[in-house]
Specification:
By secondary structure, the chain is α/β, with parallel strands linked by helices. Helix 1 packs antiparallel against helix 8, helix 4 packs across helix 8 and helix 6 packs antiparallel against helix 8. The chain is built from eight helices and eight strands. It has a six-stranded mixed β-sheet with strand order 4-1-5-8-6-7, sandwiched between helices. The chain has a two-stranded antiparallel ribbon with strand order 2-3. It starts with a helix and ends with a helix. The chain binds zinc ion.
């Protein structure tokens, strides 16, 4: 083990100890008094120098969809759309970003507002046209340029059947870091379920963590966490998962996703999975 390795492990151990320690005082964002309450860490108590912070792991956070791409939508009985997946994904991502930074991690968000990522529009994957794949390539490029240690693509699910509920996590075993992505997916799935149940959603449905081969995606794989395919000019260079925390199209789960406590719980679930992944 090099000194550098030891230093990183010491930092992570420090984070882990403080995270699992007593939760008497709350690390709250002044801008959001509803931020989660179970984590008792701040940079002073963790005693991180700015040099330490520069060496801390970097987590790429991708709020799925955005701008022209709403993702799944929830409709009221009268047909009016009252919830867009892109907005929920961003809410969760911003909370996760704040949690990670509060605990000394570095982050890279692929978007921080309701916008396309491929701006100005360009043919990023070089296939001769500008489409949503270029927006996905732009997200991969951001994570790669940041040197991320792992990638969370934050989504919520949709179905034509409003009765479908559930929580699932997706990885690609064919990705160059597929084995690590599988390990991350297992951690995310377990963490999402336990946080949703802890906050009172006892009927949360465990839809499992799965390889992306069964999704029927073009060339058999998700773009962000999958391997090289004709769609992908530059593959993501870190382990990654797509998390589908709840179903936007379910009346019950859409209602949950309007609740800031639930959004905070989902963000905490990703946060704790990241810490476990980096320290495990
Ligand atoms: Zn989505």
């Amino acid at each position: 083990m090099s000194n550098e390795d030891f230093r990183v492990i010491s930092l992570l151990t420090c984070w882990l100890l403080t995270i699992s320690g007593p939760s008497s005082s709350l690390a709250q964002e002044p801008s959001d008094p509803t931020l989660p309450v179970s984590l008792d860490v701040d940079l002073q108590s963790a005693n991180l120098s700015s040099a330490d912070r520069e060496r801390s792991p970097l987590i790429a956070i991708d709020p799925g969809h955005g701008g022209r791409e709403p993702g799944a939508v929830h409709r009221q009985a009268n047909g009016r759309v009252d919830l867009l997946e892109k907005d929920v994904n961003l809410e969760i991502a911003l909370r996760l970003d704040a949690l990670l930074r509060d605990h000394g991690f570095r982050t890279a968000l692929t978007r921080a507002d309701d916008s396309d990522v491929n701006v100005p529009p360009s043919d990023r994957n070089g296939d001769g046209r500008i489409d949503n794949d270029d927006d996905l390539q732009a997200r991969v490029d951001i994570a790669n340029a940041a040197g991320a240690a792992l990638l969370f693509s934050i989504h919520n699910n949709g179905s034509t059947s409003p009765s479908v509920r559930g929580t699932s996590t997706w990885y690609s075993i064919d990705h160059p870091s597929g084995a690590e992505s599988l390990r991350l997916a297992a951690l995310v799935q377990t963490s999402l379920l336990s946080h949703l149940r802890d906050i009172g959603y006892l009927q949360a449905v465990n839809a499992g963590f799965h390889d992306d081969a069964g999704l029927g995606k073009p060339f058999g794989h998700l773009f962000l966490v999958g391997p090289q395919t004709p769609r992908v000019a530059r593959v993501s260079q870190m382990p990654g998962v797509v998390g589908e925390s709840l179903y936007i199209t379910s009346d019950r789960e859409a209602e949950l996703l309007k609740n800031t406590d639930v959004l905070n719980a989902i963000a905490e679930a990703y946060f704790e999975a990241a810490v476990e992944f980096l320290t495990g």
